[in-house]
Amino acid sequence: MRAVWLLCLAGAALGADSPSLFYSKSFPASKPAYVEIKLTKAGAVEYREAPDEDSPIQFRLKDSESEEIFSLVDKAGSLKRPLEAPTKVAFMGMKTFRYENGTEKNEVKFNYTQDTSAQALADWFERIAETAQRRIDLERVIKYDKLGVVDSLLQLQIAMDRKRLLAADQFLPLLDRVVNNESYMHTARARASEVAGLIRGVKQ
Fold first, then answer.
1. Is residue 112 a contact partner of residue 95, using CB atoms and an 8 Å limit?
2. Model's pTM, two decimal places?
């Protein structure tokens, strides 16, 4: 029993020391005005639209996606160097990256950067945010606005077509709920079935 307890402690310690990334963007003129994302090396995502939000959207990236993101951190010098470009540009939201790996903690803030690795890293987090926002919207219309389901599904399909959707299988339970519920319009059920088929086709 003591051996099992020690193994559990070791596993917890390993998880605590594993690399993780924090990203936030504060942009009062946009909607949402604030987002923050926490990502572990294992691919676990937490998305919030307020720092004190206690029920974040959660999903998991593919191992290959997580590995690519963390490789960009390495290329960006583990976020130890300034990223703000010297060029004056319009305000596009204050971004924060924080990298933690055991006792190592590095944080950098910027409005605009010309560092290509940091640009690619920011785009990954924008895709994560877009994915979470599409899920929030679909959950909302399914529950409160049945007439809005068709448009929400259209936006979801557009995100898929533009390669902006991650962990698409998380949408399948929501899509299947629409498909199997005759209280939704036929158009909504047909589009939900089409999008679900596309997602399942990608997974095969």
1. no
2. 0.89
Q: How far apart are CA 108 and CA 98, in angstroms?
A: 7
CA distance 197 to 138: 17
DSSP 54: S
Residue-wise pLDDT tens digits, 147-201: 999 999 999 999 999 999 999 999 999 999 999 999 999 999 999 999 999 999 9
User: Do the beta carbons of residue 159 and residue 132 sit within 8 Å?
Assistant: no
8 Å CB contact between 107 and 143:
no
Alpha-carbon distance 199 to 89, whole Å?
39
Under DSSP, is residue 200 helix (H, G, I), strand (E, B) or coil?
A: helix
Residues 6+ positions from 110 with CB-CB distance below 8 Å: 82, 83, 84, 85, 94, 95, 118
Q: Per-residue b/e over 76-85, b at no fewer than 16 CB within 10 Å?
A: bbebeeebee
| Residue range 41-88, pLDDT digits in tens | 999 999 999 999 999 999 999 999 999 999 999 999 999 999 999 999
Q: Is 126 exposed, middle or buried (0-12, 13-18, 19+ CB in 10 A)?
A: middle
Closest CA to 165 of 89, 65, 83, 98: 65
